[in-house]
Write a structure and sequence with these properties.
With 223 residues, the chain is α+β, with helices and mostly antiparallel strands. The chain is 28% helix and 36% strand. Strand 7 (182-188) and strand 8 (195-201) form a beta hairpin.
């Protein structure tokens, strides 16, 4: 009888020990699974952050190389709501009248698909149709400011240019649309979507004396 009682006690002890061991094993497995999930989540977050940083990172060009410096992904990743760009304006209008003003361009909206741009002169705001109103545009590999309808482009040169906002490494290109407008633009290599200088002409219109020169004066980042 005593041996039987002792046997029962030992069996009970082993049963408790076994349950504890199993419970500890389950906890270890749960902790291991949780650790793997955390690592996976962290890796996903890091990959997303890297992709976002890469999207905004400027494309680098070898010194002296002449090619389009931006992709539409980098242009769209560089503009934020609330940004403002100021350009000093000089030259002549369509009638040959001398110009001396500033052009202020604001970005009231920007997302992955499109951008809202509103531009107008400061001292003498233009009353032309569309001036001072938000223009919603799809992103492209060119600047959303000084937009040209379905432009063709011709690469010209690689230049370092100094404007009121500073000195910039640029690729120079001519942009033309089927309405006859031509823009010669200095595309800042490390600032996707921003021109350091723009010369606007209407070479196809014989009586049009437009020769507007815009030079970047300042950039205000979004709030």
């Amino acid at each position: 009888m005593q041996s039987y009682t002792r046997c029962l006690a030992l069996c009970a002890l082993f049963a408790v020990a076994g349950a504890t061991a199993c419970d500890g094993g389950d906890k270890k497995e749960d902790k291991k699974a949780e650790t793997k999930a955390d690592v996976k989540a962290d890796a996903k977050a890091d990959a997303k952050a890297d992709a976002k940083a890469d999207k905004k990172a400027p494309k680098t060009l070898a010194p002296g190389k002449v090619e389009l410096p931006w992709t539409w992904e980098r242009v769209s990743g560089s503009f934020e709501m609330g940004m403002e760009f100021t350009y000093d304006l000089s030259g002549t209008d369509a009638k040959g009248k001398e110009l001396k003003d500033q052009l202020l361009c604001k970005i009231p909206k920007a997302n992955d698909k499109e951008v809202g741009v509103v531009c107008n002169t400061v001292e003498k705001p233009s009353k032309d149709k569309g001036a001072g109103q938000v223009a919603t545009l799809e992103w492209s590999q060119f600047s959303p400011m000084f937009s040209v309808e379905k432009p063709t482009h011709e690469l010209k040169s690689r230049e370092s240019i100094t404007v009121p906002a500073g000195e910039f490494d640029c690729v120079v290109a001519d942009l033309k649309d089927f309405f006859g407008k031509q823009l010669t633009v200095w595309m800042i290599v490390d600032k996707p979507g921003v021109y350091a200088k723009v010369i606007e002409t209407m070479p196809m219109a014989e009586d049009d004396k437009t020769n507007k020169v815009y030079e970047l004066a300042s950039i205000k980042t979004g709030e």
